[in-house]
Amino acid sequence: MLWTQGSPESQGFAKGMAVMGVWISFFLVQMPFRLKNIETTENGILIKGFKQNTLVEYRNIHWISKFDFSNPWAVTIKYRHPDSGLDRKINFLPNQSEQRLFGNDAMTQFILEKIKTHNPDYSKDNQPSSFKNILLITLLGLPFVFLFLYLSGFLK
Predict the structure, then answer these.
(1) CATH number at residue 127
(2) 60: which of 34, 70, 80, 151 fits an S-S bond (Cβ 3.0–4.6 Å)?
(3) Helix 130-152 and helix 8-34: axis angle, to 10°?
(4) Which domain, by its residues, includes 59?
């Protein structure tokens, strides 16, 4: 039986799930483009690409930030690209066995210490606020949640 042939409640629930799928896809669509494989060295991070590898020196990294309330916990690095001079962001997934809520894994801590040592312009104030991220995602998600609840029949 198709969802269009079911009861009005099941049709509403299916429409609501489609709305939530659109909301979740906003985050999932960008992940393959930003998620990178990196290695740390004494001089910088090596971003491994399909065709070439890029070495970003620690002095060119603006900040490193972890969004604690997602799973898997992705770490975001904002840096100045050595060739173009443009600011870019990448994500990487740290070792999942070392994850701690509001704490850094060994690789993230190593990168952070290297940034503090090599980048005199580094300031923790430039990092995005975890609280603002949670607040922004919550506020932007509320219309989707209410639309889901309305279409599902919970708010009628």
Answers:
(1) 2.30.29
(2) 80
(3) 150
(4) 33-151
CA distances from 70 to 6, 27, 73, 99, 108 (A): 34, 11, 5, 11, 16
Residue 152: its H or E element:
helix 130-152
Residues 57-107: tens digit of each pLDDT: 999 999 988 776 555 567 889 999 988 999 999 988 876 665 555 566 788
Residues, the chain, total? 156
Q: Is position 4 within any domain?
A: no
- Residues 111 and 92: their CA atoms lie apart, in Å, by 12
22 occurs within a structural domain: no
Round to whole Å and give the CA distance between 109 and 112: 5
* Domain total of the chain: 1
Interatomic CA distance for residues 121 and 82, integer angstroms: 17
Q: 128: which 2 tokens?
A: 């995005």
Structural domain contains residue 14? no
Could you report the per-residue pLDDT of 103-139, keeping only the tens digit for each? 667 888 899 999 999 998 888 888 887 778 778 888 8
Q: Which pTM was predicted? A: 0.72
